[in-house]
């Protein structure tokens, strides 16, 4: 007869932890069959249950492609024996649920991506697993991937490509999320009022600076299909900022990024990297010495100083400024400032600073791409917000919830006026350093930027065609691209052109690894094989996208993981044909991965 365990060692199910651990120890024999049955019962106390999950995505008004992808993923999962619900949310609600509250099973959406693969550091490193924003929203905790992420940061430039390839191979094996495709980007522009549209990427500040002004045009009329810019201009907000081009026009960074990924001085007149090591390099990174431009000011007239720079990098690490028990890092730019170990003031009069950085030069320079915040404005935003009727989560500061209207930056354009869901208008900041004769950088040529909100690509196109707007700022939705490219009215209009730009964002299926069974890589690998990317691109994107299995640009995709004529070998073939999942093949794959099915043909898992 089995003895009764002590109450002090029981867990909530009544199982004696000490006895259970002893009975399951290696090499330990248990003499009494009744005890064996008790232990087995304790281990298997939860029977497998039918897997039911919810796909969170944006509404069709916010992202038509995401909802169509989500529906296709639902169909694929249901054919594999999984019960699926769709949870469609507005843009703010979607990002708040996924990025801030991490309250989801799986989601379908677009990742902002980057031209540099170091974007994966913040997306996947375990140091960010408890943070909000695009910093590891999946909850991945993988030592091998952490090591690869760190290695690509520290690798000398001539060795980095190999380190990135090793990282991507580890990513494919782990599948913390499933990249699906990168949409081709097309915009419509007028060339009769402004020219030079190809000089800068329209998803960056440089896309709206240095334009050629024709016929004394003073107002650049932008039509924007996302109303969030009229509600919130906080550069730190993950719910309202993805690319954040208009915030970048209000706020300067020390450096700016060109369309090909090069990092060049901006608010800084110069920067220089020193690896600080011997001939064999220094694995701890190096130092960036930065010199600020002289006589720069914020939009309220206050001078931009080295104190503002130091404040910014400290504030992005902890928006409580050390006043709370735990730091509250920003949900944006966290990955970039994580490179910075320390900021040292070398000379206040000359505006010289040194950044001690844990990265080699190409990655280290990207630490200079964060918005410089005025200390006299943001220092008072380090406290806990008090919003009547709203329960505020621990670690939330005013800095993270403010709409920042009006924004006080030092950028080439300053806020003028807004009407929520209708428009927001910016005025040229005539004291910006790019307006100086001795500065050879593109500056604000349009006296005013008026951003008109229009919810659909079709009506945005009409505004450009009828001379009511000069540019569609966001990529056209895929379903209209074919008509635009073949439009006789556009082709015959010498004042309207289609602008094609490279894209570094990508659509993907994200898992919440904090919940079972999504934390199991074997489960995720099978799910990845339920998606026929080529069919999805044809059906959802009308062919205007490229399939991918890795979350980087084509330039960084190794040959071994390139799509070419089908999925690369490490990924595995689609479990079906012509876009339709084969239930038998899916069942076999899940069973090979260690999962079982009930008599009703439904996949069952242990929670």
Automatic annotation (TrEMBL):
Signal peptide start and end residues: none
Disordered: annotated segments: 558-578
Ranges in coiled-coil conformation: none
GO MF, one annotated term: peptide transmembrane transporter activity
Domain of life from the UniProt record: Archaea
Naturally occurring in which organism (per UniProt): Natrarchaeobaculum aegyptiacum
Residue intervals of the Solute-binding protein family domain: 263-602
Name recorded for this polypeptide: ABC transporter substrate-binding protein
């Amino acid at each position: 007869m089995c003895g009764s365990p002590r109450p002090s060692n029981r867990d909530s199910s009544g199982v004696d932890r000490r006895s259970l651990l002893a009975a399951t120890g290696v090499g330990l024999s248990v003499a009494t069959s009744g005890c064996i049955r008790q232990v087995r019962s304790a281990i298997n106390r939860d029977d497998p249950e039918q897997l039911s999950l919810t796909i969170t995505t944006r509404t069709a008004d916010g992202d038509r492609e995401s909802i169509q992808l989500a529906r296709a993923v639902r169909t694929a999962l249901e054919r594999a024996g999984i019960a699926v619900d769709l949870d469609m949310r507005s843009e703010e609600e979607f990002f708040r649920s996924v990025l801030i509250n991490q309250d989801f099973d799986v989601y379908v959406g677009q990742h902002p991506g980057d031209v540099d693969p170091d974007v994966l550091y913040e997306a996947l490193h375990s140091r960010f697993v408890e943070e909000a924003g695009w910093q590891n929203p999946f909850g991945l905790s993988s030592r091998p991937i952490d090591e690869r992420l760190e290695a690509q940061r520290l690798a000398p430039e001539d060795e980095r490509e190999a380190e990135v390839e090793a990282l991507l191979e580890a990513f494919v094996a782990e599948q913390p999320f499933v990249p699906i495709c990168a949409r081709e980007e097309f915009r419509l522009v007028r060339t009769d009022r402004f020219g030079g549209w190809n000089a800068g990427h329209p998803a960056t500040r440089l896309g709206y600076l240095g334009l050629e002004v024709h016929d004394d045009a003073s107002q650049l009329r932008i039509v924007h299909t996302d109303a969030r810019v009229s509600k919130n201009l906080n550069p730190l907000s993950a719910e309202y900022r993805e690319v954040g081009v208009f915030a970048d026009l209000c706020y300067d960074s020390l450096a700016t990024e060109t369309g090909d990924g090069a990092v060049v001085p901006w608010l800084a007149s110069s920067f220089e990297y020193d690896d600080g090591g011997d001939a064999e390099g220094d694995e701890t990174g190096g130092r960036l010495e930065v010199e600020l431009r002289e006589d720069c000011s914020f939009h309220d007239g206050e001078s931009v100083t080295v104190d503002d720079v130091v404040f910014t990098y400290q504030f992005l690490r902890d928006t409580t400024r050390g006043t709370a028990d735990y730091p509250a890092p920003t949900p944006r730019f966290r990955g970039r400032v994580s490179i910075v170990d320390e900021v040292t003031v070398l000379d206040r009069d000359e505006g010289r600073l040194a950044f001690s950085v844990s990265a080699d030069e190409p990655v280290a320079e990207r630490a200079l791409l964060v918005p410089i915040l005025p200390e006299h404005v943001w220092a008072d935003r380090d406290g806990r917000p008090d919003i009547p009727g709203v329960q505020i989560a621990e670690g939330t500061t005013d800095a993270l919830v403010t709409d920042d209207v009006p924004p006080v930056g030092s950028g080439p354009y300053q806020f003028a006026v807004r009407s929520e869901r209708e428009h927001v208008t910016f005025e040229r900041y005539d004291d910006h350093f790019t307006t100086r004769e001795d500065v050879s950088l593109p500056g604000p040529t349009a006296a005013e930027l008026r951003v008109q909100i229009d919810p659909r690509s079709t009506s945005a196109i009409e505004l450009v065609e009828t001379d009511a707007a000069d540019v569609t700022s966001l990529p056209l939705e895929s379903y209209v691209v074919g008509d635009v490219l073949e439009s006789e009215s556009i082709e015959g209009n010498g004042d309207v052109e289609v602008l094609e730009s490279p894209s570094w964002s990508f659509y993907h299926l994200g898992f919440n690894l904090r919940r079972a069974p999504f934390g199991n890589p074997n489960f995720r690998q099978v799910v990845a094989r339920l998606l026929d990317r080529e069919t999805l691109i044809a059906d959802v994107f009308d062919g205007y996208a490229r399939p991918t299995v890795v979350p980087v640009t084509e330039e960084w995709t190794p040959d071994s993981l390139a799509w070419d004529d089908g999925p690369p070998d490490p990924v595995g073939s689609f479990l079906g044909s012509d876009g339709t999942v084969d239930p038998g093949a899916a069942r076999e794959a899940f069973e090979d991965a260690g999962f079982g099915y009930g008599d009703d043909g439904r996949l069952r898992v242990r929670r």
